[in-house]
Amino acid sequence: MTQAGHTAPTRRGLLGRHVTVVAATCVVVAAFVAATAGAAVGGKTLDPVTVTIIPISNTRPLDVGIKQGFFERQNIEIKKVVLQSGNDIVLALANSKTDIGFAGWVPAMIARTNGVPITTITTSEVEGTTLADNWQNIIVKGSSSIRTPADLAGKTIAVNALKGVGEVMIRAALDKLGIDSNSVKLLPVPFPAMRTALANGQVDAIWTPEPFLSQAINLDGARDLMAPGPVLGRYFPIGGYFARTDWVAANADLAKRFRAAMNQSLVYSQGNSAEVRALPPALAANVRLPIWTTIVDRAQLLKLAGYAKKYGAISSLPNFTQLVPSSIEGGKTLQGTVGDKFITLRQDGRIVTELRAGKYTFVVTDNSKSQNFQLVGPGVARKTGVPGTGRATWTVTLKKGTYRYSSQGRPAAKRTVAVS
């Protein structure tokens, strides 16, 4: 992840700035790989795959998949390495020191446009729709005089790295709100150190994901100020899992099996939030989980690339055919909501009455203890519970025909969507 106001670095410059990080990465990853050439389980040898991640809640589906045995069933043993930013992970990929890396789309675009031949193995998560439901926001001290995004002018905001998702989205969102994005200073601070940086006055605000977001709010009394992603669009794409194209070419079957296990992990995590939260270190009930999805909205991704170019993270648009191959399914994210007296289904804020056949992620917010949200149509039958409330996320394939979204409560609410 990165920040703004500078010209995009050349690959040599990118690597040169992070020699120490790369050297450390090489040592850590080499230790993992040397220690494990493949583990024997049940009489068979599993194929080792080194996956490098950053320490945020977004990557918990990987741990869920390991615990549930999804990777083992695909004959894969995961070797996990932790770094502090997507840019650091891209550098590890550039030097072939990891097999697969979790990173934001912006660092992936930087890599691709600087000659690092990476490609998407799977998608991961998107942002929410509002300040309240988003899992990655700008926050300030509870006592801060900064009350609105406009008050950020002239202030310092911590991001985990420059020239990445954080910088691009913060600057794009500020400018969209009519606030000069050049008036803010962005300071790179690792996510785990941001709360301290905010508390001691090193920075005026921090851009941070979960679990650090809720920790700062609940333990430090910090205050939610701005959600850059939802300012730019609903369910804005954030990250995925990437590998070098030469690794994929040499390990085509292994890459396919990893994708299958990772997608299964993402879908499972969507519907089993309690299990996600219970993984060590356990997450509090009020920690906002990301919205995981196995599909990518290519139109929004192109918009993000445009922002990355505008704010100097990249000097040219990446080759999307190579970065996001056809094996990564495209689709849209829809917002379903049900209350005591209403039920709606929206795309980009507009009520949906017609859709094209294809894959969709439904993010359903059930706000009623007497109503529920159910979706029924060709090949699909999903519903939330009538007595409970909360969020459900379903990724489904809609076929040609008529789909009904309704509530089983009384009086029953019914709406239809025509799929062509």
**Portion of residues within helices:** 25-40%
Name the CATH architecture of the largest domain. 3-Layer(aba) Sandwich
Return Rg in Å.
21 Å
The strand line-up of the biggest sheet is 4-3-5-12-6-13
- Beta-strand residue percentage: 25-35%
Residue-averaged pLDDT: 90
* Large-scale geometry: globular
Count of individual helical segments: 15
Number of domains: 3
How many strands appear in the DSSP assignment? 23
CATH class of the largest domain: Alpha Beta
Unreliable parts = 1-37
Give me some keywords for this one.
420 residues; alpha/beta; D-Maltodextrin-Binding Protein, domain 2; 3 domains; six-stranded mixed beta sheet; 15 helices; disordered N terminus
Write up what this structure looks like:
The strands form five sheets. A six-stranded mixed beta sheet has the order 4-3-5-12-6-13. The chain starts with 10 loop residues before the first helix and ends with a strand. The protein is globular and about 55 Å long. The chain is 32% helix and 28% strand. It is built from 15 helices and 23 strands. The chain folds into three domains: 11-128 and 235-323, D-Maltodextrin-Binding Protein, domain 2 (3-Layer(aba) Sandwich), CATH 3.40.190; 137-227, Periplasmic binding protein-like II (D-Maltodextrin-Binding Protein, domain 2); 332-419, Immunoglobulin-like, CATH 2.60.40. The protein is α/β, with parallel strands linked by helices.
